Inverse folding.
């Protein structure tokens, strides 16, 4: 059995990498939409990110550049750790990956708390949002009663749009307490959608196309909806105004609805953003697949067209996520009317 599961040594794999490889669009696409321990800037230029591991030895912190750089990618071995396809593994004494679950060495512990590209990108987006809105807040205080100016005049219509066209129609008179949440979700999703469309933005990341991020946003929505729900909301779920013999059917359906609403938000945002990135990269890959410049004019035209659509989708998905969140909150806080 050991022969079946044996893996090549680190030196053998390095030798194999020297052979010429055909262009594989799948690798390029999945590298872009996935996470990484470095941020790609341009060409072979990368920004290494911190590696934070918790193992049997406790916490270990070092840079992803310590793995060594090859062909613009951080890969290789650092002491007993090996970076393989942006996954950190523990290697054996013979420099070979130990077979088994997660390629981990038997009886070893490895918990990865590293600052990855998506985490760094999320922090960068949050810092930009904080700087912009703290500046706007300061402008409102200094220019009280005056017409908006600069960035304030640019973003005020968006803020008013979220308040007047999203929060008030869907939540009603109790809208004010949910405005901070809705504005944060709208601008957080929007800014990361837009940054994901900039080719040379640090990382060229796909944050809102990461299902862990959309899951977290949807989970926050789930908590807000159910903690805001009044007695009529819960009565409609567990004691609806229907014949009692329908309870075994309707109550489970309503309970499933508690989860399915935020689940739909998660999948919609994740799928739309990821699909857009995959389509654009697939169109660009046609040039390298056919190995001719004759394909490039058509490919570039379609890429520009898709990027224009993606620009619309960036705003649309931020609006849809925020609007449905407000709608679900409004359903939970709505007072019963006879």
């Amino acid at each position: 059995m050991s022969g079946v599961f044996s893996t090549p040594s680190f030196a053998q794999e390095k030798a194999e990498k020297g052979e010429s490889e055909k262009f594989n669009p799948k690798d390029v696409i999945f590298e872009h939409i996935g996470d990484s321990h470095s941020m790609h800037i341009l060409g072979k230029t990368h920004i290494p990110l911190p590696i934070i591991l918790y193992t049997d030895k406790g916490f270990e912190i070092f840079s992803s550049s310590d793995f060594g750089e090859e062909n613009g990618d951080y890969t290789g071995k650092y002491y007993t750790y090996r970076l393989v396809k942006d996954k950190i593994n523990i290697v054996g004494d013979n420099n070979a990956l130990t077979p088994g679950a997660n390629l981990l060495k038997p009886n070893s512990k490895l918990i990865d708390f590293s600052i990855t590209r998506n985490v760094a990108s999320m922090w960068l987006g949050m810092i930009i949002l904080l700087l912009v809105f703290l500046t706007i807040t300061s402008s409102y205080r200094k220019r009280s009663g005056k017409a908006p100016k600069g960035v304030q005049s640019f973003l005020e219509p968006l803020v008013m749009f979220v308040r007047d066209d999203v929060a008030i129609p869907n939540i009603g008179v109790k809208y004010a307490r949910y405005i901070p949440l809705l504005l944060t979700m709208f601008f957080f999703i929007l800014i990361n959608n837009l940054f994901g469309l900039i080719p040379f933005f640090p990382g060229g990341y796909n944050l809102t196309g990461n299902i862990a991020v959309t899951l977290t946003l949807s989970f926050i929505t789930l908590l807000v909806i159910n903690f805001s729900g009044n007695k009529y909301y819960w009565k409609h779920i567990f004691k609806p105004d229907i014949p009692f013999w329908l309870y075994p059917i309707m109550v489970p359906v309503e309970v499933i609805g508690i989860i399915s609403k935020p689940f739909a938000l998660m999948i919609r945002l994740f799928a739309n953003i990821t699909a857009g990135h995959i389509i654009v990269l697939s169109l660009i890959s046609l040039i390298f697949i056919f190995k001719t410049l004759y394909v490039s004019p058509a490919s570039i035209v379609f890429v520009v067209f898709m990027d224009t659509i993606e620009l619309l989708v960036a705003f649309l998905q931020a609006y849809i996520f925020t609007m449905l969140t407000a709608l679900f909150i409004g359903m939970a806080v709505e007072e019963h009317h006879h």
